[in-house]
Amino acid sequence: MLTYQKHISTREQEVLEKISFGLTSKEIASVLYLSTHTIERHRKNLLIKMDVRNTAGLVRRGFEYGFLSL
Questions:
Q1: CA of residue 38 relative to chain centroid, distance
Q2: Residue 60: phi, psi to the nearest 5?
Q3: Angle 57-38-48 (CA atoms, 0-180°, nearest 5)?
Q4: How many helices (H) and strands (E) does the chain have?
Q5: Hey, which bits of 17-58 come out as E strands?
Q6: What is the per-residue pLDDT for 6?
Q7: How far, in Å, CA of 63 to CA of 37, rounded?
Q8: If the chain, 70 residues long, is cut into consecutive pieces of 10 residues, what is the mean pLDDT of each piece?
Q9: DSSP letter at 47?
C-alpha cells in the first residue's frame, strides 16, 4: 500500500466512487445534481492529480491511495 496520498476534494471523492461503480458522466451528474460539464472537469482533475490516463487507472489508483475500498 502506498503511504503517500494525493489531495482530492470531497466532491472528487464522490465522483471517483461513482466512476468505480461504472456510472457515466451523465448519470453521475444526475445523481449529484451537477452539470455533465462539471463532472467532466472533476474527472479531468482526478486524472491529473492521480497521474493516470484513463478510467481504469483512476479506479486502480483510488484503491492504491485508499480512496476506494471493497
A1: 13
A2: -60, -50
A3: 35
A4: 4, 0
A5: none
A6: 64
A7: 25
A8: 66 96 97 98 95 96 92
A9: H
Total domains in the fold of the chain? 1
Amino acid sitting at position 61: R
Amino acid at 52: V
Tell me the C-alpha distance between 19 and 59, whole Å: 8
Selection from 24, 11, 18, 16 nearest residue 52 by Cα: 16
Structural domain that includes position 58: 10-64
Cα separation, 32 vs 70, whole angstroms: 22
70: in domain: no
> What's the CA gap between 21 and 11, in Å, rounded?
16
Cα separation, 37 vs 56, in Å, equals 21
Could you tell me how far CA 4 lies from the centroid of its own chain?
17
> Residue 7: its pLDDT value, please?
86
